[in-house]
Amino acid sequence: MLLLAAVLFLNYVDRGALPTALPLLRGDMHLNENQLGLLISAFFWIYAPMQIPVGWLAERYGAHRVLAAGLTLWASSTMLVGVAHGFATLLVLRWMLGLGESAGFPCMSKILAASVPLGSLGTANGIVAFGYLMGPAVGIYLGGLLIEGFGWRVMFVVFGAVSLLWLLPWSRVAVRQNTPEAKPSEGPGTSAMLRTRELWGTSLGHFCSNYTFYFMLSWLPYYLVTERGFSNLEMSRFASSAFLVNALCAMAGGWWIDRLVKRGISADLAYKGVLGSAALVAVACMLCVALVPGPLALACIFIYQALCGASSPGVFAVPQILAGPGAAGRWVGIQNSIGNLAGIVAPWLTGFVVYRTGHFFMAFIVAAAVSVLGFVGWAFMVPRVRLLDWTSATDSVCSVGARRNAE
Questions:
Q1: What is the pLDDT of residues 114-137, one digit of tens each?
Q2: Rounded distance, CA 59 to CA 228, Å?
Q3: Dihedral sign, Cα of residue 306, residue 105, residue 134, residue 170
Q4: pLDDT greater than 50 at residue 399
Q5: What is the DSSP letter of 151?
Q6: What is the pTM of this model?
Q7: Cα separations (Å) of 111 from 65, 108, 254, 325?
Q8: What is the CATH number of domain 2-175+190-390?
Q9: 120 Cβ partners below 8 Å, 6+ apart?
């Protein structure tokens, strides 16, 4: 569990390195905001669609091995950014980073669904969420210090090299792990999953929560420097503090959801209540940052981070419950693929809007509107949070196949 939290921590440190370096990278390579937005979103051009085949690979060949291969690729690409020159080279390295990091969440969900009981899934996902949400907090802070002392190129080399060290303890866990891998044949077929309303509800909710999260992750450092007048050091302290709140609330939120379930509250009410509330609060906070000047707007960034963190365990625990051990890798692969399309849209659209208008006002308005759709996905498109009856779905598919063969 600790190594899963650690690898997703490294996942987010490495993917957040580029946004941290944006103010200096722009000047050194003579890039505009539109190009910066394209570089950030390029990661997701590969990361999002590769979730689906990686989810299948995790169930077919073992999540432990696929996760190790993914980390090796993404850590190497992070280090190479430190010696890159030019927009085209950075673009290719962002694609490599996305390919490697696509292994993270499908493999994590496969391992948790196969080894953690229902009453502890909230806490387990909270611990893992604490890891990946601490990534931006620590990455922005340490990145700011490394940039201030040694330059942005050294930051990328250090981050990538440290990530590779994770393979040493993981190699022992992967050899000794005795949790049986559920084969794809033991769960529902992919076509059966695609016909469920719940899959599309969790995917819509995930997309919308990711839109606001990636908007903040990608552009908060730049926003604080250019519109709020923060220095690089002030920016790193503020942004890392905000993401630290996010991470702490994630761990607390997962623990709290499990306590509610153990006290008799249905998993449906516990998970959907937190996810729906977080979406509505995100709407209010984005509007506040756009419309209200001064310290109150900055306070709303912290409020958003707190509710975003509290809802993070549910984003992956809900599909793990719905799909079960035999399908969690593929379900999360599909859901995370759709959800991370927001990583393509949010950074690029924000960069385009800021480039055209010169301000972040409309970018925050768009984020508020998207969060409304997220509430619809979690609250209305997921009827109940419980293991779906895959037997009837499989029988239905077999019956259709039998009728076609008879005809």
A1: 788 777 888 888 898 888 888 877
A2: 47
A3: positive
A4: no
A5: -
A6: 0.77
A7: 12, 5, 17, 8
A8: 1.20.1250.20
A9: 258
